[in-house]
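Progress against Task 2.4 (sequence-to-structure conversion) is shown through the following example record, which the project officer requested during the mid-term review.
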Amino acid sequence: MTSLTAGQSLLLNNRLWHLRQVRPRSARVLELEAIGASEAAQGMARRLQAIVLGRHLFIARPRRDYWQANLDQDWQPGDFGPVLACRPATRLDLLDAFTQQPPAGDLPNEFSWSFSRQALYQKCPRAYYYHYYAAWEGWQADAPEPVRQTYLLKNLTNIPAWTGQLVHDAIKFALGRRQAGGPATPTEVAAQMHRRARADFRASQAGHFLRQPNQQVGFREHYYRESAPPAAWREAWQNARRYLLTFFNSALVGQFAPDSFLSVEALHSFAVEGVKIWVQIDLACREPDTIHLYDWKTGPIDEDSARRQLGIYALFAHHTWPEHIRGPIRGTVLGLADGRRIDFEFAPADLQAVQSTITASIAGLQALLLQPAQANLAELRRFPQIPNGEVCRQCQFKALCGRD
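Structure tokens generated for the chain above:
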């Protein structure tokens, strides 16, 4: 047997259920109407929801887990026809089967690379798996519930990350106004940032993100009901305002000529070895003999990490704006917490080394995939958990790992 039809039977928790109806609800969801056929369930009627993922069938249990069976291998003869023997399964079992199948929708999950993607894998392979594979199509209404939950968790933020995003968006607004020839005073930008902060907090506290996780800000602190006293939110806002003023008071600001702007906090891509590489540069400016790339950071600066990140941006600039480059590409990182400035230069030899590093990273990540040459499909066991510790306590995916 390779399909589920009326007239067949299910064995669930040693109870036999006869299928009266099997109704497709979508490409991967079936609604089942079953009647108890064993002594313990004789005559009982039950409606069940089944999810088909390739040859794997998952039937939702009342307490959030599943029964699982293979539609090719788990049939056995019964007195009244074929019986599909199902075994208990977890939400992770479903995610594992889900990520080994091509997406059901029109949007393919294509492999790409970025500095943040590689950094997440190095931090925790399991979080990487959740973020880039298990959450895919979680925006769809018919996606399995664990996939939708993973997508929601992927979109959560926390107080430090949100603080940084507030500041980056405020600086982007200020630079955009300046590029358009309009004024943007620190007082005006800070007021706009404060209105945004209040709206984000209220929306998250009200739980709007539970319905629209990719459109409404959702805090990890709210989702997990973690203790975050009012003082923590006040401190976050005070830090954001201080970081913004550090930017405005920086000597760099006077060097920005609006007619030299090439990109302001925009998402770009280029290709290395046929793989799309994503970059989001805070500011790229044209200079007389080169391009100058800027990055603002609200957290601690690791100089080696900053150089690697700016090197990737420089490689993008080399591919995208070669007509402006006659010397080494310049890069500057500005620490908004302390005003620290770090400058870099990237000559052609440096860019070759950056490209080699990206190529090696791509090869390493693709080697983890199932059939990497054909499809961007992943198997859970290839992305192990790290030991439970501080990284896990700060992770938005900790509910999936049972570490919440």
